[in-house]
Amino acid sequence: MLAVALRTAVVLSLLTTATHVLMLFLHVAPANSVSNRFGPQINAWVYPLFEQNWRLFAPEPDSVNRRILARTAQTTPGGPVRVSAWSDLSAVDHSAVRHNAFPSHTAQNLLRRAWTSYVETHGGNDGADSERAVMMQTYLRNIAVDRVKAHTEANTIDFIQLRVLTKPIAAPGAAAGHRPPGPPDERLLPWWKVTSP
Prior knowledge:
alpha+beta; single chain; 6 helices; DUF5819; 2 domains; 45% helix; six-stranded antiparallel beta sheet
């Protein structure tokens, strides 16, 4: 009886592993008839936990400096809404990386990748029109709330708002005839309701 259970577990593990490898292969492979036909099933398997890309091998360096700021609002019963000052979340990340011989991946990339994924799913507007867009909005909001709570004395946060300042980086060795980058581009996101965990 034990041998049968062990064999069944081994067979199921091998089948799951083979399915996983096949799904990831079809996800990263160039478009073909199989991946076109089974695209929704492949994406359901891969996202959000097993997303694959080639940035590890050929990273695309940022061509902009981005500052992500957050402010919070607290409502009081029958009283005014208290709005905090802007907190620079990017500066907190940069200070965690600077002078650190082994900075953590989360300090370097978590907030930046969350913002990039938010922009990829929302484009220029802030309306979430897919489940992935809603997930990325929630992910970005949760990261911002965690960062604000870790670096301020806010006990409760009812709403959070993000402001993103993006400034292009001048090309290295730019000729004297090139204009320096202009003022930062500003994007103000709407207030998001903070849900209790």
